[in-house]
User: Fold DUF3817 domain-containing protein from Paenibacillus arenilitoris.
Amino acid sequence: MLKTALGRLRIVGLLEGISFLVLLLIAMPLKYWADMPDAVMIAGSLHGALFILYMLAGLHVWIVHRWSIGKVALAFIAAFLPFGPFVLDRKLLREEK
Assistant:
């Protein structure tokens, strides 16, 4: 799975999606309800790094697989939606096979 550009995008996308959910559903409540701002700093930093890797992986797939600009835009928009990377992963799995 890590040997192809699509496989790398899928893995990084899943990790980025999980980190986004952790940030929204665990770290943010800890910050505001339990007065633990470090949770957001840690989860936010990890999510930020994974987001950048996701964007780079998306650009790599765009170049290697000659995706249309619409398809690339859809992949980038998915990163901003809480469950977007998981929905995109299903589509990428079909394309990878």
